[in-house]
């Protein structure tokens, strides 16, 4: 499951902030009262993964193409100005959500910022569907939300779901959060897929060893050596040779 993020705004000294979802992995803090923000924000920032590229923000800004999806020109201008002030100059505004996937594929952005203000449930679901299909860091801005929508954004893979936080001075930090979380989640997905592949390969190899042991009256170690030697000779992976053995055995049954 993707990680979760919560946004706190206008927290007063001694005040309580209530989480709409339990144990978020990240916190964004905006307009924090003096005396309480820096220490807490610095502590939570340590939990954020370092950008996978290891490049500086300036270097990253020079190469990132960012798409803003916003039907409101005033709110889009806030996003655009905040990004440009932070050094991100390759910014493209998508003015309509109709045929959004087609436009996204045409632009091929590195990051997508979606501003919905007060979206209906249908519009939210449309944007979540885009997130499921387009494998890019996506930050979504809404003025208000509920627990169900936040959970839906997590399930859809939204990298940063920002509630009531559309301020140009926060763009750099939100973008950093969005990219870092996307990179971290992508790595988790890749690791999981590699683990699944390794497990399936091991199952196939074990089946092939069993077939060879029975057919040739050899030990398990000898069967594995035979698979390995054949793979080396044919310049293939052991799992591929094992699959060929299993397939041949099933044909000859």
Number of helices: 9
Biggest sheet strand order reads: 4-3-5-6-7
- Tell me roughly what share of residues is in helical segments: 40-55%
Whole-angstrom Rg: 25 Å
The number of strands is 7
Q: Can you tell me the CATH class of the largest domain?
A: Alpha Beta
Just name the CATH architecture of the largest domain. 3-Layer(aba) Sandwich
Name given to the CATH homologous superfamily of the largest domain: Response regulator
Multimeric status of the protein: single chain
Shape type:
elongated
Detail the poorly predicted runs.
1-54
In percent terms, what proportion of residues is strand? 5-15%
The average pLDDT value, as a whole number, equals 78
CATH topology description of the largest domain: Rossmann fold
* Number of discrete domains: 2
- Terminal CA distance reads 42 Å
Description:
This protein is an alpha/beta fold and 253 residues long. The chain has two domains: 5-189, Response regulator (Rossmann fold); 193-251, Arc Repressor Mutant, subunit A. Helices cover 53% and strands 14% of the residues. It contains nine helices and seven strands; from the N terminus they run ββααβαβαβαβαβααα. It has helices at 37-45, 57-63, 73-85, 100-107, 121-133, 147-156, 171-216, 220-234, 238-251, and strands at residues 5-9, 26-30, 65-69, 90-94, 111-117, 138-142, 160-163. It has a five-stranded parallel beta sheet, with helices on both faces. Strands 1-2 form a two-stranded parallel ribbon. β3 (65-69), α3 and β4 form a beta-alpha-beta unit. α8 packs across α9 (238-251). The radius of gyration is 25 Å and the shape is elongated. The two termini are 42 Å apart. The model is unreliable at 1-54 (pLDDT under 50).
């Amino acid at each position: 499951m993707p990680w979760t993020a919560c946004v706190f705004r206008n927290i007063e000294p001694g005040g309580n902030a209530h989480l709409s979802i339990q144990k978020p992995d990240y916190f964004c803090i905006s307009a924090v009262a003096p005396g309480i923000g820096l220490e807490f924000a610095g502590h939570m920032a340590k939990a954020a993964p370092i950008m996978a590229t290891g490049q500086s923000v300036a270097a990253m800004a020079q190469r990132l193409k960012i798409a803003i999806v916003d039907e409101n020109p005033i709110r889009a201008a806030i996003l655009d100005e905040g990004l440009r002030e932070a050094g991100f100059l390759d910014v493209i505004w998508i003015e309509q959500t109709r045929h959004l996937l087609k436009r996204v594929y045409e632009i091929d952005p590195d990051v997508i910022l979606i501003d919905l203000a007060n979206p209906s449930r249908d519009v939210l679901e449309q944007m979540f569907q885009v997130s499921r299909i387009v494998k890019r860091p996506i930050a979504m801005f809404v003025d208000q939300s509920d627990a169900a929508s936040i959970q839906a954004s997590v399930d859809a893979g939204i990298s940063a779901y920002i509630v009531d936080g559309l301020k140009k001075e926060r763009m750099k930090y939100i973008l950093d959060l969005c990219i870092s979380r996307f990179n971290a989640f992508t790595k988790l997905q890749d690791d999981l897929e590699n683990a699944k592949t390794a497990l399936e390969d091991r199952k196939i190899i074990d089946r092939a060893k069993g077939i060879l042991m029975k057919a040739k009256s050899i030990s398990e170690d000898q069967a594995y050596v035979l698979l390995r030697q054949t793979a080396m000779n044919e310049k293939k992976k052991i799992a591929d040779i094992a699959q060929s053995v299993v397939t041949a055995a099933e044909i000859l049954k």
